[in-house]
Design goal:
seven-stranded parallel β-sheet; six-stranded parallel β-sheet; 12 helices; 21% strand; 15 strands; alpha/beta
């Protein structure tokens, strides 16, 4: 009997199959990370539009830089900088060297808010506004606006105002904070069974900093044998530094990265070199085992190392969990998510019949069924996940190749330390 291979489709493919189209007003497009939102934006969404009448808004400078470095799409764009405030001409967004060029204007929400404040009539020709990571504009308004500075509030108000003359498209995988009252249309692909998305083999909850230290020790055991990498997200720079220190204490090579704008915690030359590699090449330097980031890199960067297989998100916020995990642009083996709920520890006591003897693939399958541990999604944890838990609980596992009935077979031997 032939196995059925499930074919997943991109956001663009599903959009075109359904014959969807954007109309005037505010539309929200919800699609999971990994579904191809960037391709959709530059190949489907803007099709038939005059590029110089389009504004593409990013949440951070990292996302803006990612577009600028994209060899497929950067030629379609011009990138707004603070100095361009003085070059706005003819009440339009055509500024500086961009005059006469048929290109999309790319800017951050903060830049858009400042430009809106200083030049409120600069958008008379705008016919489309694409708001990438749209939820972040609202989140940043709540976090950073105060009595003196309200750039994000101004940006949001201007977007709402311009929706009377232009098509406004909000793109997000995590739209929980977006007010649905102003929306003209919602296209929700988040529960689409066939859409491409990033996946993980296991999701494991944890609750304390002590658990993080334990996970890092478990990771060292695994990476010594399999040579894999790990991404860790946490909120504060002090916590970034603390986790990096823990990594160094167990003999792992790790580095922490945060915002370039933080003058009180200026990064070293090596940190800047690593950041440059991630932004420009989408790669964690080969010599590193673990990369630790904070909110400044929560969106806008893509990590494409083939050997990165673990992600830990030190936050209970669901939006942060989705966005931080999605910096790794591939399916992964295990995702650790912080929870406020009390965690039941599955203590594994193996029968002696499983110890000190070669275990074949069939044996491992039988062992997984006998132990009977399930993940957060109700799936039986198989050998890959079970072996990690066994190592974490003090067992030792060694892998060998032996000859069984004239055939070379990979086996594992479990022993007590």
């Amino acid at each position: 009997m032939r196995s059925i291979i499930k074919v997943e489709k991109t956001l663009s493919e599903l959009w075109n199959e359904n014959g969807y189209a954007i109309s005037d007003g505010i539309s929200l497009i919800i699609a999971p990370c990994g579904s191809g939102k960037t391709y959709f934006t530059f190949n489907t969404l803007i099709k038939g539009e005059k590029l110089e009448n389009i504004i593409y808004l990013c949440d951070t400078r990292n996302l803006k830089n990612a577009v600028a470095l994209d060899k497929d799409y950067s030629s379609l764009c011009r990138f707004y900088y603070k100095s361009d405030d003085n070059n706005v001409v003819s009440n339009s967004i055509v500024f500086g060297e961009g005059v006469g060029e048929n290109r999309i204007t790319v800017m951050t929400y903060a830049q858009f808010g400042l430009l809106s404040s200083n030049n409120p009539d600069a958008f008379t020709t705008v016919k489309m506004i694409i708001c990438d990571e749209a939820h972040q504009a609202i989140d940043y308004h709540r976090k950073f606006d105060d009595e003196q500075t309200q750039v994000y509030k101004i940006a949001i108000e201007t977007i709402n105002k311009l929706s009377k003359q232009a098509k406004v498209i909000l793109l997000s995988a995590t739209p929980k904070v977006i007010d649905s009252k102003r929306l003209h249309k919602v296209f929700d692909f988040s529960k689409e069974a066939d859409i491409k998305r990033l996946r993980e083999n296991m999701i494991i909850p944890y609750s304390t900093n002590k658990d993080i230290k334990k996970i890092i020790k478990e990771f060292k055991e695994i990476t010594l044998k399999q040579k894999i990498k790990m991404l860790v997200y946490t909120d504060r720079i002090t916590t970034v530094k603390s986790i990096v220190k823990t990594c160094h204490e167990v003999g792992l090579k790790a580095i922490g990265l945060w915002s370039l704008n933080n003058k009180d915690n200026a990064m070293s030359t090596y940190q800047l070199e690593c950041l440059d590699s991630i932004v420009k090449e989408s790669l964690i330097p080969e010599e590193l085992d673990i990369l630790v980031i904070n909110a400044s890199l929560q969106t806008g960067v893509n990590i494409k190392n083939k050997d990165i297989d673990w992600v830990l998100v030190n936050s209970t916020n669901e939006t942060t969990q989705v966005q931080a995990r999605s910096r790794v642009r591939k399916d992964i083996e295990v995702l650790f998510l912080k929870t406020n709920e009390k965690i039941k520890i599955n203590e594994i006591l193996l029968d002696d019949k499983w110890l000190n003897r070669p275990l074949t693939s069939k044996d491992k399958q039988e062992l997984s069924i006998e132990v009977g541990i399930f993940d957060e999604r109700g799936r039986l944890i198989k050998w890959k996940g079970l072996s990690k838990q066994l190592i974490g609980q003090g067992y030792s596992i060694n892998n060998y190749s032996i000859r069984i009935k004239s055939k070379i077979t990979r086996v594992s031997i479990i022993s007590k330390k």
